[in-house]
Amino acid sequence: MTFLEANRDELIARCRRKAAHRKVPAMVADTMDHGVPQFLQQLIDTLRLADSAPSTAVLAREPAPAATAIGRSAALHGAALLRSGYNADQVVHCYGDVCQSVTELAMERHATIQTNEFRILNGALD
Predict the structure, then answer these.
(1) Which of 38, 83, 86, 89 has an alpha carbon within 20 to 30 A of 52's alpha carbon?
(2) Cα separation of 40 and 71, whole Å?
(3) Separation of alpha carbons 122 and 36, rounded Å
(4) Do residues 15 and 98 make contact, with C-beta atoms less than 8 angstroms apart?
(5) What pLDDT sits at residue 109?
C-alpha cells in the first residue's frame, strides 16, 4: 500500500507510456487522467482496509467485481474507452499496464509485494 502511495505518479506515467506505445486510438485525456489514478487510489484504499481487517474477514467477503467501487469504476472507465474507439482487448491492456507497471517498479526498487496484496491487485484487475 505505501509502495503504491509513494510511487503513484511514477506508476501513472508508466501506464501512459505503455499506452502510447500501443497502436490504439488516441487516448482521451480525461479518460486516462481519470481511470488509472482513480483505480490506483481505490486499490490503495482496498489494501488499507485489508490491512485493518482480520485476514479471514477480507478473504471471506469477496463480492463480485461490479459490486465494489473498483468494479463500478472499471466498468465506467471501460465504457468510456469503448466509446473512444478502443476494443475490448485494448481496454483489458489498459488495466494490464497497471499490473505490469506495479510489478516492474517493485522489482526495480527491490520492494516486496505481499501475497495478499498481490491477490487483491489481481482481484481488482479481474
Answers:
(1) 38
(2) 13
(3) 15
(4) yes
(5) 95
Identity at 10, one-letter amino acid code: E
User: Cα(72)–Cα(77) distance, rounded to whole angstroms?
Assistant: 9
Q: Nearest Cα to 11, choosing from 105, 83, 111, 119?
A: 105
Contacts of 24 (CB under 8 A, 6+ apart): 86, 90
Q: What secondary structure letter does DSSP report for 109? A: T
Q: Is this structure's pTM higher than 0.85? A: no
Rg of the chain, C-alpha, whole Å: 15
pLDDT in tens, 41-80: 888 888 888 777 655 444 445 544 555 677 777 777 778 7
DSSP for 43-60 reads HHHHHHHHHHS-HHHHHH
The dihedral built from the CA positions of residue 15, 84, 92 and 122, taken in this order, carries a sign that is positive
**Distance set, CA 99 to CA 4, 40, 72, 120 (Å):** 11, 10, 19, 11
From the centroid of its chain, how far is CA 99?
7
